[in-house]
Amino acid sequence: MKILILLWVLHLIFSFFTSSDTNPTSETYTLINATNLAKPGCLSRCGELIVPYPFGIGINSNCSIGPGFDVYCNNSIHPPKASFTKTDLTSIKLISDSTLRTTNNVAFKCYFPNGTTSRGFRIWANFMDGPYTFSEVNKFTVIGCDDYSWLTSETKSRDVSTGCATRCSTPKDVIGDQCSGNGCCQSSMPKDINYYRVRVFSMDDSENMSYTRSFNPCTYAFVGEENTFKFHGTTDLSDTFLKEKIEANVPIVYEWAIGNLNCTQAQATDGFACQYSNSSCVNSLRGSGGYRCICNEGYEGNPYLSPGCQDIDECKDPEKFPCYGTCFNTAGNYTCKCKRGHYGDAKFLDGCRRNPFHPLVLYIGVGSGLLAVLTVLSLSYFTAKKKKLVKLRKKCFEKNGGVLLEEKLKTTGGIGVGSMKIFHAGELEEATEKYAEDKILGRGGNGIVYKGNLPYNRVVAIKKSQRLDKGQREQFINEMVILTQINHQNVVQLLGCCLETDVPLLVYEFVSNGTLHRHIHNRKSGVGRLSWDSRLRIAHESAGALAYLHSDARMSIIHRDVKSTNILLDESYTAKIADFGASRVVLLGDHDQVTTLVQGTLGYLDPEYLRTGQLTDKSDVYSFGVVLAELLTGKKPIAMERCLAEQTLATYFEKAMMENRVLEILEVEVVKEATNEQLKATCELVCRCLNQVGRNRPSMKEVTMELETLRKFGRHPLFSQDSYNEMSSLMIETKPKDIYDVPLISNSDAFGEYSSSTTQIEDMMSEIHCPR
Predict the structure, then answer these.
(1) Which domains, ranges and CATH numbers included, belong to the chain?
(2) Tens digits of per-residue pLDDT, 650-664?
(3) pLDDT per position as a tens digit, 418-444
(4) Which of 70, 222, 364, 738 has the highest count of CB atoms within 10 angstroms of its CB?
(5) Any idea what DSSP says for residue 346?
(6) Active-site residue, selected from the candidate residues 70, 192, 236, 561
């Protein structure tokens, strides 16, 4: 008996050191052989589609957990078709425990030889208050030549958009089956949206496009599951039935969840869905919250309906649960023992061995060899673990672009990696409390930014990429290389990086007062209003930083994504330019034109850059002009409530200037605080920055000098209270608290020669022209 005990100990030790480090978990529940697919009296199938509860067949049939989970089944056709509503153009193809797949709907624009076009315009707005969001496994794809498309949406906290442009003049421009910008382009889906709008636009409608339209008569834009779509080059460009093929074969994937409460919150309510035995609640990863129910491991069935999940008899399914001995089913598991006279692990073929005799030699051999075996195994384990850790870190370093980073820093003349702070993964994990949700400062297209607390009370911002594909890895390296070249008080400082994790991490100085966008547009959150002096100072500091990037840095840098959300404010409200993931480094004497794939943000994007694909430093000037317009008007760069021709702030501002009604759109407090010269000169500067022709725009250095001159004018209110009241028909007064102790209205006129009458300021503004 003692011999058997010693052999069993040896077996346990060997199993421990040879077992995998992975601990697979399952987030799915199975409905195999389940008798509780649907509520009693309700159907569980619509044609070939299984519809398990919490979904239910029939609108308002009380067969689902709520209205958002109702499924309409059209039995008048064969086979029957399932959809969200009776009028829905798409059909539901598959429902799983966390996702749902439907057929597609494609936006298109087709060109006919007689010069006419046809367009399909798609608006998804079915799930504004429903349980669905679009999954990140989808991609936004555009197929065509010299066209582009935008996908726009909004959430409760932000406006989001994505898009891309395709370029090709001849079939030779399309590189094989690559969806890389020539004939086909793709972009990632914004996170946590439940509807979107898509339109297709032309880059060139001139007659010289007739040859292009001969092999590419239509352009298509759609959202669909990335892994099921394959671009077939020129074959797809000329296929007039491509729309129907995509709609039939490329599904749209939705994520669903119950409600918007997490498991802990929902459990305290009467309508908690995970109340049946052998099931668990899991939180949804959607930003809007919610939860789902799953069967515990070793159980199957529907966790939403009585009697809940039932124990799986593993002994009845030897192919899935192998046993080469005697099988015993247990609750949620099973045991497999070797037959009498054998020992070992009966779950493996040849895992059982016949018991040895009872000779003393085996007894002595096991006793004397046990210590040696333990020693050898321990040394081998720790040596292998150390080598594995070194190999893993090296692999992460290479995967995260460490070699590329070293090469770029050498070729660009930047500082070496050794002179930067290289953080360990454990340091940053501890600083962010394992990347807790309440540590998130913001989310962007390139990743998530967390607030971290390092030792000695040092607060930092840690940027973590969402995924690690090749394009994002290059953006990460690009941003790091750029930031090593920059030393400016109005640019966010890079402190170091971490390359030991699955996704790369950048560590920045922490900028405490958030984004300029928040201070201009999100006043309801308790943020104080920025005075005119503060806005002019912030604009001057931001322009100076961009001028430094364009002409004074070690290498000329084009930011390529200038916007109010990328201008941060520190504790003293000093401006800091951030987010260099999309920037380009070019030689100082060779950056008049750089051909790139179009990147940027809708509302700020230079129309000349969008049209030609030629990036210059004047593209940053255009985007900065939009930021200046935001500071003057307090309006967002995109406003869907305005008419189509005025939806972008740039167009809206230019039109108001041309029609001599700019006072109607300027923010009330700005007009009250700024001087005549400041208002007139700033509006003129915005117009020059927004010029449609890049070479006619000023440089950022010229913009900086003009803003510096305007700041020297001083703060002298333009109107008295009485004259301001006369303009109430033109402007709407708001009175939020200013973050600075600056009076909004003064009855003194420092210059003495300027009247505060409404007529004079209107005459002055009417002299400003905004040439196209």
Answers:
(1) 99-256 (no CATH), 402-509 (3.30.200.20), 516-766 (1.10.510.10)
(2) 999 999 999 999 988
(3) 456 778 888 898 999 989 999 998 876
(4) 222
(5) T
(6) 561
